[in-house]
Amino acid sequence: MSNVATRFAPSPTGALHIGGVRTALFCWLYSKNKKGSFHLRIEDTDKERSKDKHKIQIIESLKWIGIEYDGDLYIQSTKINDHIAVADQMLNDGHAYKCYCSTEEIEEQKKRAKQKKLPYIYSRKCRELHKSDAPKNIKPVVRFKSKIEGFSVLKDLVQGDVKVENKTIEDFIILRNDGTPTYNLSATVDDHKMNMTHIIRGDDHKINSFKQIQIYQSMKWVLPSFAHIPLIHTLEGKKLSKRDNASTFDDYSKIGIMPDALRNYLLRLGWSYKDKEIFTLEESIKYFNFEGIGKSPSKLDISRILSMNEYYIKNISEEELYNHFVQYCELYKEKILTEKEKKLKISLTFLKNKAKTLEDIYNNAKYIISDHVSFNVEDLKLIDDKAKKIISEFAIKVKELKNINKEILEPIMRDLIDKNKTNFKGIGQPLRVALTGSKFGPGLYDIIISLDKEEIIKRLGNKILS
Fold first, then answer.
1. Would the pLDDT of 41 be above 70?
2. What's 278-295 look like in SS3?
3. What is the pLDDT, as a whole number, of residue 240?
4. Which residue has the higher pLDDT, 46 or 191?
5. CA torsion through residues 457, 344, 433, 334, sign
6. CA of residue 67 relative to chain centroid, distance
7. Shortest CA distance to 385 belongs to which of 433, 438, 436, 430?
8. Which of 162, 169, 205, 315 has its CA 20 to 30 A from that of 331?
9. Confidence check: pLDDT of 1 > 70
10. Which of 357, 259, 253 is nearest to 310 (CA)?
11. What pLDDT digit, counting tens, does each position of 183-226 carry?
């Protein structure tokens, strides 16, 4: 076998879709498993909708999850002349023809097909039109002359043999009437020019593959292998679209899903290897194959993503977790000051407790990150006269302490409970609100021990609480 070469070919017309990330991952893993190359092609021929910011986001997103492309970035819009040259060659060789049908004619054909509840297929009216009979005042499109007789079989590496009647594949347009190439022409020419050996993509592209195979055959090019991955659906079983919540890649990084966790989840979304759930990057490359890809759509489950992320939060080293946390905060929240680093690192053991995302850790750590306490208005209502008395009494006790640890704090807490005829919640809630601004968060002892004595006294003496 020649060296395996795969590609991911997104359009920079919007944020990278989570389904696209999985396709890129499968392409990348297969090429690396076969010690081949993985390439990135930006299909930016839609000039109105293509944006540089989307191109940058695609590249950065793939890099973030661990996918780096080989060779140079391939920009489709710079290759338009190559695509047109192939269309001209197919015209000369009789594999394509000029079509002069008006938009109104085509719409009428579509309308009639709809009325008969049949899929629309162009009538092939201009297929045998003689050059001398061609209208002079109409700019034609160029259509590929598809096969009419017999069947075509796609030997799909995931789906198995897929058979279609050739007459159901219309004479598709390869050049628009303004002379620009269409997707099926451009993608095919680019795949050939890039020497792609395997085309791996969503199974909504199967009909495109039949069209593109015919272009390969008409040009007598070496045919690549095709693998079509079942699509990702919502939990309700509908095709996932960019309009769905949590459908774009950024939706996950913004809430603090870590790259290894998301990559591991996407790997297992429609692929399996024995009963293994957790894969290192090296194991992902080693074990990935087409045999493990299922034939049915996968359902995107945010609860499973959170569960996977929680696993990584609990099981990676705290040094690595802290680095992820700092990067996340700088990107989406706020820069962590150097003087807070030591305290945050020491506190990470409890800050990560019950956290499913880096955002959860941030919310738990806000009282450390900021010296200013921002009070939750509803929680501030808990500070009644009895709560103020508890806060005041505890502040007096803290001032007398030389060291602060759990063994020293426990008898103080018991004494406060007895004096105020309450329970641990009765003293814990007001103290937590006073120290962090919220009744929610880490354990009370952890909060107190993580703050300096002077900081504790300062917060307990906040005028808002008096």
1. yes
2. CCCHHHHHHHCCHHHECC
3. 76
4. 191
5. positive
6. 12
7. 430
8. 315
9. no
10. 357
11. 999 999 999 999 999 999 999 999 999 999 999 999 999 999 99
Bridge partners of 37? 5
Q: Which long-range contacts (CB under 8 A, 24 or more apart) does 386-392 make?
A: 386/420, 386/422, 387/429, 387/430, 387/433, 388/430, 388/465, 388/466, 389/420, 390/416, 390/420, 390/422, 390/426, 390/427, 390/430, 390/431, 391/430, 391/431, 391/434, 391/460, 391/465, 392/460
Closest alpha carbon to 218 in 390, 384, 94 = 94
CA-to-CA distance for 39 and 423, rounded, in angstroms?
63
pLDDT of 242 > 80? The answer is no
Q: Phi/psi of residue 84, each to 5°?
A: -65, -40
Burial 113-148 (b: 16+ CB within 10 A, else e): eeeeeeeebbbbebeebeeeeeeeeeebbbbbbbee
Interstrand relation of 151-156 and 198-202 (parallel, antiparallel or unpaired): unpaired
pLDDT over 80 (residue 28): yes
Two tokens at 335?
A: 């820069």
Quote the crossing angle between the two packed helices 424-436 and 406-419, to the nearest 10°: 120
Per-residue DSSP letters for 27-57?
A: HHHHHHHTT-EEEEEE----TTT--HHHHHH
pLDDT higher than threshold 90 for residue 2: no
Tokens 């099926």 sit on residue = 184
How do residues 102-123 score in pLDDT, each as one tens digit?
989 999 989 998 999 888 889 9
Assess contact for 108 and 152: CB atoms under 8 A. no
55 is written with which tokens? 């191109």
Distance CA 185, CA 174 (A): 5
- Joined together, the tokens standing for residue 346 give 């020491």
In the β-sheet with 5-8, what is the strand arrangement from edge to edge? 5-8, 37-42, 74-75
292 by Cβ neighbours in 10 Å (0-12 / 13-18 / 19+) ranks as middle
Q: So what's the pLDDT on residue 464?
A: 87
pLDDT in tens, 292-343: 999 999 999 999 999 999 999 999 999 999 999 999 999 999 999 999 999 9
How far is CA 428 from its chain centroid?
A: 41
Q: What is the pTM of this model?
A: 0.91
Residues in the chain: 466
Q: How far apart are CA 177 and CA 169, in angstroms?
A: 21
Cβ burial of 345 (10 Å; 0-12, 13-18, 19+) is middle
- Strand intervals (E) in 243-314: 298-299
Q: Which two tokens stand for residue 287?
A: 């074990």
